[in-house]
Amino acid sequence: TMKNPVPQAASLLLEKLLLLVHVRPLPAGSETETPPPAAPGYYDTSCFKRGDLLEVPRTLFIHFGIYLGENRVAHLMPDILPAFTGDRRQIQQVVTNKRLILGVIAKTASIRVDTVEDFAYGGSILVNHMDRLFEDQVLGSEEAARRAEKLVGATAYSLLWNNCEHFVTYCRYGAPVSFQTDKFCETVKMIIRDQRSVLASVLVGLASIVCLGLAPSTTLPTVFIPFFLWMAG
């Protein structure tokens, strides 16, 4: 018998959303909230210049930042903590998955400065790879770095209008755009266009809750589509 493609499509869509906002779904029973960063000195920063746009490709998403020099990277991450405190020492601590998820729900984020190791978490780094898409729109390196530095601090978060890619494209090219969000939205439209798929996804989610109990892996797919529509606004 053939497997129903609807639950698979909904599951893939949820996975893409979580990865797009930098959340890594954890294995059952895992006590680690975030993956360990690479050891200090893992990256050769001598090839980076102040104002460079850094990309860290993942399986289904890309994380972006602006290099500020001296092993420092400015990047935008969803985070609930800035909504409750202005204590920089607390905010600067490694952002856990709980803080990320709550930040997405509350639409809050922070543009923070981390080491290259904390920013990349062991991933490979591409430098100024997006320049080819913007041709003559590339701003000066110092201008890009200064824009990033001025924006450091708490900010609003929106998957569609203000994510890490919007931040870096504004800093380096003067216009906030997000190509990976555009691709993600096309996937959302494809699924939502078929109302039967939406209904089937919800029913599958409810059945999973009944059979397996309340857990992120069962409740998130059930509420994902209406939640995304609200969050995108």
From TrEMBL:
Sequence ranges assigned to domain LRAT in this UniProt record: 53-180
Localization in the cell: Cytoplasm, Perinuclear region; Endoplasmic reticulum membrane; Late endosome; Rough endoplasmic reticulum
Taxonomic superkingdom: Eukaryota
Protein name: Lecithin retinol acyltransferase
Lineage: Eukaryota, Metazoa, Chordata, Craniata, Vertebrata
EC number: 2.3.1.135
Listed transmembrane segments: 198-231
Swiss-Prot/TrEMBL catalytic activity: 1,2-dioctanoyl-sn-glycero-3-phosphocholine + all-trans-retinol--[retinol-binding protein] = 2-octanoyl-sn-glycero-3-phosphocholine + all-trans-retinyl octanoate + apo--[retinol-binding protein]; all-trans-retinol--[retinol-binding protein] + a 1,2-diacyl-sn-glycero-3-phosphocholine = apo--[retinol-binding protein] + an all-trans-retinyl ester + a 2-acyl-sn-glycero-3-phosphocholine; all-trans-retinol--[retinol-binding protein] + 1,2-dihexadecanoyl-sn-glycero-3-phosphocholine = apo--[retinol-binding protein] + all-trans-retinyl hexadecanoate + 2-hexadecanoyl-sn-glycero-3-phosphocholine; 1,2-didodecanoyl-sn-glycero-3-phosphocholine + all-trans-retinol--[retinol-binding protein] = 2-dodecanoyl-sn-glycero-3-phosphocholine + all-trans-retinyl dodecanoate + apo--[retinol-binding protein]
Biochemical pathway: Cofactor metabolism; retinol metabolism
Signal sequence region: 1-28
UniProt topology in membrane: Single-pass membrane protein
